[in-house]
Amino acid sequence: MGNMGTQTLPDWLTKTEQFTLPELQTKRRKTDGFIEKTLAGISTIIEEAVFSQKYASLSGLLQAMDARFKLISVLVLLLAAGFAHSIGLLIALNILALLMALASRITLSFFIRRVWFFIPLYTGIVVFPAIFSFITPGKPLLMVGPAIITEQGVKAAFMIIARVGASVSFAVLLVLTTKWQNLMRALRALYIPQTFILTTEMTYRYIFLLLRIIDDMHLARKSRVLQRTSGSENRSWIVSRIGVLLKKSQGLSEHVYLAMLSRGYTGEARTLQPGRAGIADFGVLSSSLLVLMAVIMLNRY
Amino acid sequence: MHIPDGYLSPQTSGVLLAAMAPIWIRASRKVKKTLQARNVPLMALGAAFTFTIMMFNVPLPGGTTGHAVGGTLVAIALGPWAATIAVTIALVVQAIFFGDGGILAIGANCFNMAFVLPFVGYYVYKAIASRTNPRHKWLAAGIGSYVGINVAALIAAIEFGIQPALFHTAQGVPLYSPYPLSVTIPAMTIPHLLVAGVVEAVVTAGVVIYLQRSGEPFFNQERKQIDTAKPVNAAAQS
What we know:
heterodimer, A: 301 residues, mainly alpha, two-stranded antiparallel ribbon, B: 238 residues, Arp2/3 complex 21 kDa subunit ARPC3, globular
């Protein structure tokens, strides 16, 4: 080390830079929050994926079902929620979803939080203006200043919230009670090509690897940058990281392909065979079909 | 732009799913033909990239953040047909596993974001890039992505806007999205013209500039197959 002269040091290391550390602030500036926001988003995704798998290993009504039958039953129930023409029917479907969650040993508070926390609440805000006569004309219910709330408007708003709630409930039940490998395999029941299923399986696996790379990028930035950075500097950093991620993902696909080739991949996709269905599977599927038929019949009244 | 279940009638979702079927068939044939056996890992990583690009929060002036969809960027990198497959898979994973976008609405979401967005974005990019200096490819990419996301938003607005006229009860209660075209078009297009489109353009153009400056090969893989004899580029391994 001793014989290494100072001339070998790179310029940037010998240069002194004038900069002052930012003052300690108790209130964080909004522009500095994009790193935390991304890190929080990644944690939420991983948390959701882990929690979904936790419930899938319990023994309950839906967990015991063959994934193919469960997938088709849920699609039928989603159609029932889509075709229902009255608030009463949609409330009944929401109650059915709650009962299915109970029978599948999903904690009700967790299920309600997962279902009703974001999408239906967001829907409520989105459809709020529709209760007024300037969007939905009809029988006046109430005057709010110059605006009139109509019966048709209120019904329309409740209808869409209840419909979105029921749809999200059935979709959440499917994902919470099924291991993701079985869910992928179940897609074969819908005549989806094996290549597509294999690709989707790989996508699901590599999403978590890419998320980890993004997480590392942001943590590295957060732990090394002390100086306050400008918005344009942050934007150019973000786009450069997206560029790196794009090239990394393309390079990785080549590595994965070579690894597949070396393990005997011939270009023909093969996925695991689905298991056997039991009487209970046929029972749940026929019950779902009955619910759909009942909804279509009751729409007439 | 992810449409949840309940906003569109099952009939609308069904029509858009049927419209996507021939597009998916054509896309998978095209991808299989050009990429052969490596189409599976390339599409899988392309889809994983499409999924994760939405995780990047881009700081915007005024203190808020936004995220890009990346459809045009993926179309420029992989080709529009391959982008259709990659974005479709990303949307399926989002809908089934993460509740982002509806399951019945998969056809509609794929039509808007896996077909309209990458194709419009890519062909606008191609039309401009073929007439300008290669150094200005980033500008073509930015404009292409801006047009692509805005056309996709307009199509989504039309899908929402036709619901109350087509599907309502005898008493005039809208069954699905209650807003007419006169509301949905400005409600969807103005935020996309002013914010989401700008984020999309900044990200797409920025990534193209970054790749051009760093000397990374940036090619459409539907047109040029990767030569396995060549080493994988250094940046991909870093």
